[in-house]
Every structure is written in C-alpha cells, then in structure tokens.
Amino acid sequence: MEKEIPFDHKKVAAYFTARGLGPCAVFVLVFGIGIVMGIVYLAGIAWWLSPMQAGRRKYRLDDKTLRVDKGVVFLSRKAIPLDRITDIALVQGPVMRYIGIWALQIQTAGNGGVATPEAVLYGMFHPEQVREEILTARDAYLESRKSI
Fold it and tell me: Could you tell me the residue ranges of all domains in the chain?
C-alpha cells in the first residue's frame, strides 16, 4: 500500500528561493552587474520557479520502494528499492535552520563509493519520525524476504 509522505511546501519553496540567491551574490561581488541580475531573479524566476519546484515534489513509500518525483523543466522519477537503503542522514544547514526545515539524505548501497545521496527529501513535518518510518519499512521488507 503506497503512502504519500507529507512535507511543508511553503518552507521548501522559501528554501529554494533563498538557495538561489547565492549565484546573484557572486555576480554582485565579481561583476558588479549582479544587482540587475538579482532583481530580475528575485522578481521573476525565484518567485515563479521555487514554488513550482516545491509543488512538483512528491515522496511516496510503499512495501518495497521509496519513490521521489521532482522537477519543473526536467522531470525525474526515482524508485529506490528499500533493500538498498543503508542510512538516512538528517541534515540542516544555516539557511534551512533559519527557515525551519530539515533535509533527509537517503544513502544507498552500490553507489560506486560516491558519498552523494541517492535522493534528498526536504521539509518533512516530523523528520525523525519519517526517518524511522522509512527504516522500519526497510527492515520489514528485508525480514519478509528472509522468510521466502
């Protein structure tokens, strides 16, 4: 049975908007023309794109997989088998802390030794509870495979 994992769309959109300000700051410091670029970004793209990025995200958990859908221009649908999940790290940088969200980084086996997460889930209402729910589902799936 598939269950959607809820998250705070408004806070995730605010995080994506704030995260996009970094390139504008670089333009200001390096080129001096970044003020115009920053205004255009903030006035147009950020206020349009960030809520869409948050709105297009969907996290779903079923008996065998964690499904992550995302993307506005380039759509991505990822199905992560629960038996490949090795750990889920809770991460909160300074911008996330200010906004009040956490990111859950899904670590998997067989990632070629690369330390990048297989998927990142942003803005969970109760991140520790979601982490435990996913790990419990993984353990239940692994246990069911042993009995076969």
Answer: 3-146
CA angle 84, 3, 66 (to 5 degrees): 15
Q: Tell me the whole-structure pTM to 2 decimals.
A: 0.84
CA distance 35 to 122: 29
> Can you list the pairs that 89-92 forms with residues at least 24 positions away whose Cβ atoms lie under 8 Å?
89/117, 90/127, 90/128, 90/131
Report the C-alpha gap between 100 and 9 in whole angstroms.
12
Find the mean pLDDT for residues 49-61.
92
pLDDT band per the 50, 70, 90 thresholds, residue 50: confident
Look up residue 99 and give its DSSP letter.
Answer: H
C-alpha 91/C-alpha 18 separation (Å) is 17
Percent of the chain with pLDDT over 90: 64
Domain 3-146 belongs in CATH node 2.30.29.30: yes
